[in-house]
Design goal:
The complex is a heterodimer of chains A (about 500) and B (about 160). Chain A has about 500 residues and is mainly α. Chain A contains 23 helices and 2 strands. Helix content of chain A is about 75%, strand content about 0%. Classes of the chains: A mainly alpha (about 500), B mainly alpha (about 160).
Chain lengths: ~500, ~160
C-alpha cells in the first residue's frame, strides 16, 4: 500500500504530468466554452494519444480536459446566455441574469469556486467509496455481475433522456454492435456479413469517436452551413462588446462573500455527487435538481431566476459534483455510468488495464496517481481560472467554422493512427452517420456506448450463470442480485417522477 | 377514448417505431434461418436474440406512444443534417483515398481550405482563417502524424 502510494506520488507529481493537466484544462475550457463543442468530444478525439503518452501523462491530459470542460460550459452560459454544454444549462438561468444586471465577474467567480468545491468533494467521495466497493465487487460471481450489468443497462436506458423505449433500443443496438466478430465462449463468427475484416469485432476508438465526435461535428457543420451558428456567434460578439467595455475590477467577488453561499454549494455538491454515481442520470439532471433544491431551501428564493448567486453556486456545484462520482461504478464494478466514464473506461482499456475491481488491485500505482491528479487538477483549475478568467469569455467567441474542418480531419487521422487500420476509418465514418441518425430521431447516445462496452461482459456473465445453474431462475438465486434488480426498478420509478416534475 | 387516440401517421415517432420493428424482425429471421450456430442452453445466438427482442419491444412501445400522442418533437432540419452527413462522410472517404495520390499535407490543406471556405460567407475577405490557418493546421498535423507518430500513410506525388 505504502509502496504503491510512493510510486503514485512520483508518477502524479512529475512536471510533465502537471503540464499535461494544465494543457488539458485549457483545452477543455476552450472547447467547453464554445457552444456545440464539448469536453467529451475532446476526450474522444484525444483517446488515440494514450498510445503515445505515459499512463500518468495521458490520464492527466484527459482529467484536465474533463474538469476544464465542466467549468467551460458555464462561461458562455454566463457571458452570452448560450450554455456551452448541457450541464451548464441550469447555471445559465441565473448566471446570465446576473451578467445582465452588471455582475458578470461575480457570477463567473461564483461558478468557478462552486465548480471547484463540488468537483473536489466529489473526487474525495470517489476515492473513499470506490476502493471499498471494488473490494466487495471482487467477491461477486457471474450471477451478481449479470445483475449489476442489467442494473446499469436498465438505469442508463431509462434515465438518459427520460424516454425508456428509445433508451432501451439504443442500448440493444450498442450490444448488437459489440456482438460483431467472434463469440467469446464458442469462437464462432457472428454478424460479420461475410467480411473477414470484421472477425476481430469493431474497435472501441472508431465507434466512440464516430458516435460522439463525428456525429456532433456533422450536426454543427450543418448548423454553420445554415448560418444559424453564425448568428449565435455574431450575437455573442455583439454581447461581448458589452462585456469588454465592462470594468471587471469594480465587480469583484471576495472569497468571504462566496463562503456565504456555502448552503447552496453544499446542496449542489451533495445532490450532484449522489446523482452522478447513478448510471445514466447525468450532470444536466444533477444541476437542475440541485438548483431546484437550493431554491426550495433558500431564504432568498424570490431572487432565483433573477441573477441569484445562490442559483449559480448550486447549479454549478451540482453539475461539477458529478465528475468524480460518475467514475465510481467504473472503478468499483467496471461499468461506465456516463458517456465520460465510458471514454475514461476506453482509455484504461487502451492502456492495457481492465476497468473494474481488478484494475484497482493490479495497477494500484496508476490508480492512486489518478486520484492524486484528480485532486490537484482542481487546484490547477482554480489557479488558472483566477488568472485567466477575463480571457476565458473570449474563448467562447472562437467561431466553430474555423475549428470544425480541422477537428473532422483530426478525428479521421487520429483514429487511423490508433490502429493503423483502414477498416477503423470506415467504421468511424459509419458510426458517425449512425450517431447523426440517432440524434435526429431522439435516441440517447450514452446507452448505445454503454451497451457496446458492457455487452460482451454481460453476455459472458449470463452464459456462465446459465452453465452453472442450468436454468433461468438461477439468476435470482443471489440476494445481492435481487437487490440490484429491485433497486433498478425503484430508481427508474423515482426518477421518472422527478423528470416529469422537472419537465 | 377518441380524444386520447391521435392519427399516428402524422407523427415521426410512429415510423421510427416501425423501422425498429423491421430491424428486429430482420435480425430474428436471420438468427432463425441464417447461418448461426445454435447452442443448447444459451448459444452464441441467444444474446443477439435478446437484443433484437428488446429492439422489437422498444419499437412497439415507440409506435404505441405515438398513437396516444407521446412522442419527441420532429426536428426541422433532418434533411439538411442528413445531407451534410452524407457529404462529410463521402468527403472523409475521398480525403483518405487522395492522401495516397497527392500526399498528406497537400490533401489535408486542400480539404481544410475547402471546408473553411464552404462555411464562411466571404472566404476571400477572411483569407487568414480560410486559407492561412488551414495551411498551418495541415503542416502541424503533418509533423504530428507523419513525423512524430510516424503513421504509415501511402506516400503521394507530393509530400
Amino acid at each position: 500500500m505504502l509502496e504503491a502510494l510512493t510510486d503514485a506520488l512520483s508518477l502524479a507529481l512529475d512536471p510533465s504530468v502537471l503540464m499535461f493537466v494544465a494543457l488539458g484544462i485549457l483545452l477543455g475550457i476552450t472547447l467547453g466554452a464554445i457552444p456545440g463543442l464539448s469536453g467529451d468530444m475532446a476526450i474522444a478525439l484525444l483517446l488515440p494519444t494514450v498510445f503515445y503518452l505515459e499512463p500518468a501523462s495521458a490520464l492527466g491530459l484527459l482529467v484536465g480536459i474533463y474538469k476544464g470542460g465542466m467549468f467551460g460550459g458555464s462561461i458562455s452560459g454566463i457571458t452570452f446566455g448560450v450554455p456551452g454544454t448541457p450541464g451548464a444549462a441550469a447555471t445559465t438561468i441565473d448566471g446570465y441574469q446576473a451578467k445582465l444586471k452588471g455582475k458578470p465577474n461575480r457570477a463567473l467567480h461564483t461558478a468557478l469556486y462552486s465548480s471547484v468545491a463540488g468537483d473536489t468533494s466529489s473526487d474525495l467521495i470517489l476515492i473513499f467509496i470506490a476502493l471499498p466497493l471494488a473490494a466487495v465487487a471482487l467477491k461477486f460471481g457471474p450471477v451478481e455481475f449479470f445483475a449489476l450489468y442489467a442494473f446499469s443497462l436498465l438505469l442508463i436506458s431509462a434515465l438518459t433522456r427520460g424516454q425508456l423505449a428509445k433508451g432501451v433500443a439504443a442500448c440493444a443496438l450498442g450490444i448488437l454492435l459489440s456482438m460483431i466478430g467472434r463469440d467469446p465462449i464458442g469462437g464462432s463468427l457472428r454478424m460479420t456479413f461475410g467480411m473477414p475484416e470484421l472477425a476481430g469485432g469493431l474497435s472501441l476508438i472508431p465507434v466512440l469517436v464516430g458516435i460522439f465526435a463525428v456525429s456532433e461535428l456533422i450536426v454543427q457543420v450543418s448548423k454553420a452551413w445554415a448560418a444559424k451558428s453564425r448568428a449565435i456567434v455574431e450575437d455573442a460578439k455583439e454581447k461581448s462588446k458589452m462585456f469588454s467595455d465592462y470594468d471587471a475590477a469594480a465587480d469583484k467577488l471576495p472569497f468571504r462573500d462566496f463562503l456565504k453561499l456555502w448552503k447552496a454549494t453544499a446542496i449542489g455538491t451533495g445532490t450532484g455527487t449522489l446523482i452522478g454515481a447513478l448510471p445514466g442520470a447525468g450532470s444536466s439532471l444533477a444541476a437542475f435538481i440541485s438548483y431546484g433544491l437550493a431554491h426550495r431551501f433558500s431564504r432568498n428564493g424570490d431572487e432565483f431566476g433573477k441573477g441569484s448567486m445562490e442559483g449559480v453556486a448550486s447549479a454549478e456545484a451540482g453539475n461539477s459534483a458529478t465528475s468524480g462520482s460518475t467514475l465510481i461504478p467504473l472503478f468499483a464494478f467496471g461499468i461506465p455510468g456516463s458517456a465520460t466514464a465510458a471514454l475514461f473506461g476506453a482509455a484504461f482499456i487502451l492502456m492495457g488495464m481492465s476497468p473494474g475491481p481488478t484494475m484497482v488491485r493490479d495497477h494500484s500505482d496508476v490508480i492512486y496517481a489518478l486520484f492524486i491528479i484528480l485532486i490537484y487538477a482542481n487546484l490547477v483549475n482554480l489557479l488558472m481560472g483566477k488568472v485567466l478568467l477575463p480571457y476565458y469569455s473570449k474563448m467562447s467567441m472562437v467561431q466553430p467554422r474555423i475549428l470544425l474542418p480541422i477537428v473532422f480531419c483530426l478525428a479521421i487521422f487520429g483514429t487511423y493512427a490508433a490502429g493503423n487500420s483502414l477498416i477503423d476509418v470506415w467504421v468511424l465514418l459509419g458510426a458517425g452517420l449512425l450517431g447523426v441518425v440517432l440524434r435526429l430521431y431522439g435516441f440517447p447516445l450514452a446507452p448505445l456506448i454503454l451497451g457496446f462496452i458492457v455487452g460482451p461482459g454481460a453476455e459472458r456473465a449470463l452464459r456462465q450463470s446459465l452453465l452453472i445453474g442450468g436454468e433461468w431462475s438461477y439468476l435470482f438465486s443471489s440476494p445481492i442480485a435481487i437487490g440490484f434488480y429491485a433497486t433498478a426498478l425503484g430508481l427508474i420509478l423515482l426518477f421518472t417522477l422527478l423528470l416529469r416534475n422537472k419537465a | 377514448m377518441s380524444s386520447m387516440l391521435r392519427n399516428p401517421l402524422r407523427y415521426q415517432d410512429f415510423y421510427v417505431g416501425l423501422v425498429l420493428i423491421a430491424l428486429a424482425a430482420a435480425g430474428l429471421l436471420d438468427i432463425a434461418y441464417g447461418n448461426w450456430r445454435i447452442g443448447q442452453t444459451m448459444g452464441p445466438e441467444a444474446f443477439p436474440q435478446v437484443a433484437y427482442i428488446a429492439i422489437l419491444m422498444a419499437g412497439v412501445l415507440v409506435s404505441t406512444n405515438a398513437c396516444i400522442g407521446q412522442h419527441d418533437s420532429r426536428q426541422e432540419d433532418i434533411v439538411s443534417v442528413l445531407v451534410t452527413g452524407v457529404i462529410m462522410v463521402s468527403g472523409g472517404v475521398l480525403l483518405f483515398l487522395l492522401v495516397g495520390r497527392l500526399g498528406f499535407t497537400v490533401t489535408l490543406a486542400s480539404a481544410l481550405i475547402a471546408g473553411s471556405s464552404l462555411l464562411t460567407r466571404e472566404p476571400l475577405r477572411h483569407w487568414k482563417t480560410t486559407i492561412l490557418l488551414p495551411i498551418l493546421a495541415a503542416v502541424v498535423m503533418y509533423f504530428l502524424f507523419v513525423q512524430l507518430i510516424r503513421v504509415p500513410l501511402a506516400s503521394g506525388w507530393l509530400f
